[in-house]
């Protein structure tokens, strides 16, 4: 075997819709020597993280904790804990991640109902509410920020409508949490899944979730404590249990709650990272942070348009932290991305499915969302496109972005 | 909300059967700024980690990569990817983690067959082989190192017997990998799951696995690429797919393999940690590392016995990195553990199920497995037990351990 050396990773400017640059304070805290999982000093850190997550989710829910896995682990934990075989699940699809919800619900043997709209658009909330009334599902599962298309689905009326119709509303807010309002309680969302590696600027590997007592009631009806640790009062019967052990929220809440029932061994260093990440969000302040994301979005969009490029998602339903840029006719999108990486150390993203080869996606998320990064990506993109023979308005991009920054003080 | 401060974690001497102290080099590498998941600099790190994992697993298998989750995520990924509803699965149970295998297999709708032996014993390999012949399962799932009882199940004859009988042999080596031989190829094990937070001395949050082409054949027969990223040649039919999306190894191997098909976003910082952890293991050398674990085990056992305490697992099938100490009659085991933590900053573990309140478990794993820790835990245990009124041979424990260390140079 080769004699492998120490990691020697180049320093990148990461302007994708995730993973994005990790806040240096978060990187640093991961070097903290670990604690045992039931050490009182550690369970205190667990509780503090739960408390701060409630703040980020804008909720009074008791349950707000991370799943130990990447973002889709949070989605799967909720869907597989709530869906029983044959349950009707309605999924509005407006991009790749709506398909992902469908995939996961299907594997949990749900009866799937979908409504679809063209990639690049979102639904009128009434369309979703009408579908809920028609299908009468147990669960509506919907994406909030669809990074594949750069679109954001409004949900402030969908949540209350679901509540009234007694439908459980489960929302994938992986891309939006910490970058734009996700008002769990005000919008009456029953469960919400966040991501770490996007607007929270924490490495991938955890997925913070929250859910209310309506979801908890379903979990408790499916609860089964593991043999090997169950005590006399626990139900050991093989009933219609949750099909995953790892994602069984009825057990996970006993681990995160006062019973502290052993399940997995909490991912210590990642929890330190998440705690520091949400602490930074709350220190900055939610509104200030959301405004910051909007400010840099505006500067980036102005720069892109002034350069002479076209935005794919220049609509009121644009996801504030993802700019989707149309790849000019005849240009090889991947060649541009490669040159950005090789010459400038900048990473931007391509897209999926029908949009592959048609758009680039530039993220302005979390710690990556700052002035020097926006200005650097604009200047690099201009230079690389000129090298690729694209006719542009030379030097206009940076001027427009600077104008934008000056206009907001 | 409270104004939370920076993490201020006490420094502990962690002598449990996991999680254990993380190697300082591993702690440090997690502070490395991250890379994007498809950055060539990152996919190189993925490949290097796979290569080094093969070394740790002593295998030529193509597939050796981590699942992004704690140890049981590795177990669930293998069981849920391989087991189809109604498949016969045989599980020999000799402690808590055998029950866990049963739990997970059950939730994958297997037809479960178990054989059980008393906690504190293991099976004669012939007993397992006889059961395999009788049950004719598709899968034998078995724990190698059972930390709940401190016992290790020999498998060198079980593996070849399974191969001959065309049974898939899946082994939970979470506790043993990196601490004692786990000869995947020589023992003809079809799939093996390792843990990070034990003998590898990496934080919890990843689970390295390996499997051979016999397992891969099953995966390929159940493969389905996600809608939203599938291309024309991919199968989109809803067949008998794997019931988890997150743990679907047929997709995960396309992400870790040359196709680099997008699935989750790899947990960057944890991967850096794992890479450094396995690099340290290979630098030390497997045999040297296994010998080190045995040396400190011997010193710890000598000390415990010289003190006048009794070992619960003083057998040839003892798990080399876990000493199970009988709690003296009339002593509150948790009170002793609490005093160790509060006065000495040392953590040792209790146990589960029938052994709860009967034994303490002292781990000597990975970075925690070193002379100063062994001597410190012996001296602290003696002092605390004297404070609890236990009659002991004063000062004998340390002398016996020092004798042991001197005898091996």
From TrEMBL, chains A, B:
GO terms for molecular function: transaminase activity. Keywords: Aminotransferase, Pyridoxal phosphate, Transferase. Pfam families: Aminotran_5. PROSITE patterns: AA_TRANSFER_CLASS_5 (PS00595). SUPFAM superfamilies: PLP-dependent transferases. Its cofactor is pyridoxal 5'-phosphate. Residues 41-350 form the Aminotransferase class V domain. The keyword Transferase applies. Belongs to the class-V pyridoxal-phosphate-dependent aminotransferase family. This is Pyridoxal-phosphate-dependent aminotransferase family protein. It comes from Corticicoccus populi.
